[in-house]
Amino acid sequence: MPYQVSEINPAKCVLIVVDMQNDFVAPGAPMETPAGRAMLPNLIRAIDCCRDNGAKVIYTAHAHRKDGCDVGLFAKLWPPVASKAGLVDGTKGIEIYDEVAPRAGEIVVKKHRYSAFYGTDLGIILRNSGIDTVVIAGVTTENCCLSTARDALFRDYKVVFLSDATATFDYPDVGQGAMSADEVHRTVLVILSVSTAHVMKVEEFVGRMISAKEGRRANNKSGKKSTASVHQEPHPKQRRSAKALRA
Questions:
Q1: Helix or strand (DSSP H, E) at 239
Q2: 10-residue block means of pLDDT along the chain (247 residues)?
Q3: pLDDT value at position 2?
Q4: How far apart are CA 162 and CA 15, in angstroms?
Q5: What is the rounded CA–CA span in Å between residue 234 and residue 37?
Q6: What is the pLDDT of residue 215?
Q7: Which residue in 174, 206, 224, 244 has its CB near the most CB atoms, within 10 A?
Q8: CATH classification of the domain holding 149
Q9: Residue 106 in domain
Q10: How far apart are CA 90 and CA 150, in angstroms?
Q11: How far apart are CA 202 and CA 213, in angstroms?
């Protein structure tokens, strides 16, 4: 059976928009992920839905200090990081891509590793916000999105992974064979759907958010009507006392 999230309460839900920054998304960026631009309409819809229905939106940005003291083994894994061509704190490259830029007051968590939880204050923010459901979108599917989803699960959050609002890049052959972005993406979704998250499309997510909001609204109206219709009959002794006073 696939992992399922049975209920999404917008008031206890956060959409984490992972690393939709210029260094990954902008055309010609040093760590460009073209599929990250292709899925922008879906991501925008998810973000707008959360804002409209009272769910929290938090962004992450992967950044390293200019002196490289926090880079570690990433310098061996990613040449643009080693050369400081990308992911350098304080540069335009770590700013969120304009089309999905955060609104005033929305949090951007700077992180130094794949997971948005590792070495950041994200966990504190979620606990103090009463969050129980974490929704993942952004780039890349198999690295930062997957790592953040897993770390959310490890902290006992319900996890939703948006299949058409996450994306990755083509993997070259470094000894194990090449994989296209579509292959990498699909493989991760298959694994996550069993072990980590409820994998769903933005269409389903939006529908469930709207239904949850309408359900709460209907319950609130029903509760008010029930309260207004309650009429308590006075106790017999109270009725006799009232008659005696009138006499």
A1: helix 236-246
A2: 91 98 98 98 98 98 98 97 98 98 98 98 98 98 98 98 98 98 98 98 97 78 56 53 48
A3: 85
A4: 10
A5: 68
A6: 77
A7: 206
A8: 3.40.50.850
A9: yes
A10: 29
A11: 17
Supply the angle between the helices 202-229 and 40-52 in degrees, to the nearest 10.
10
User: Residue 87's domain spans which residues?
Assistant: 10-220
* pLDDT of amino acid 233: 53
User: Which amino acid is residue 222, in one-letter code?
Assistant: S
**The Cα angle at residue 176 between residues 173 and 181, in degrees rounded to 5:** 55
| pLDDT attached to residue 153 | 98
Cα 208 off chain centre by: 15
Instruction: With respect to residue 196, please indicate whether it lies within any of the assigned structural domains.
Output: yes
In a 13 Å sphere around the CA of 146, the CA atoms on its Cβ side amount to 17
* Residue 234 is assigned to a structural domain of this protein: no
Structure token digits, residue 54: 């009272």
Number of domains in the chain: 1
Which residues are bridge partners to 13 per DSSP?
A: 133
Provide the pLDDT for residue 214.
83
Kind and range of the H or E element at 139? strand 133-139
CB atoms within 10 A of CB 194: 11
2 located within any domain = no
Q: Report phi then psi at 152, rounded to 5.
A: -65, -45
Q: Which of 161, 146, 177, 211 is nearest to 9 (CA)?
A: 211
Does residue 158 sit in helix, strand or coil? strand
